Amino acid sequence: MKIVSHFSKYLGVPTHIGRAKNQVFNYIQDKVWKKLKGWKEKHLYFAGRGTLIKAVAQAIPTYLMSSFILPKGICHQMESMMRRFWWGSNVDQRKIHWINWKKTCKQKNLGGMGFRDLRAFNEALLAKQGWRLLTNPQSLVATVLKAKYFPHGQFLQAKQGHRSSYSWQSIHHAKE
Hints:
Elements: E1 9-10, E2 13-14, H1 21-40, H2 46-57, H3 62-65, H4 72-87, H5 101-104, H6 118-135, H7 140-149, H8 166-175
Antiparallel strand pairs: 1-2
């Protein structure tokens, strides 16, 4: 068995999440920033920028968001980076944002661009994990979580509990 430090990762996910959530999840924001920064030098039209935002920048944090609720500040900063990239802003020159970001996050048939609201998407992915616990109670993760957090009840009546894992806290938050 390998001994790991507090700052190691397994499958790209931190193995230890303490109280400083912003510090732990800051690396995902850095990954998105590196991708966006590399594309800024290329002179892309809106269609190309939109495709890159949807296919790469919003896809990078998806795996992590299906296991943990990201801090609001991290979601806000990633959306801010995507906004600036979308409108063509850079460090020394700000561009006008002609449409509110919430409007661009609407579906295309409702007049938006189809971008994701990262906070809502994060909660939806965690709610999906809760749904999996309900519909597949024989799965390994369901039996482990049931044994630890709701051994004598059902998932819908489960309480968060004291000193529970951050993954359970996240799924429980989405349940509420």
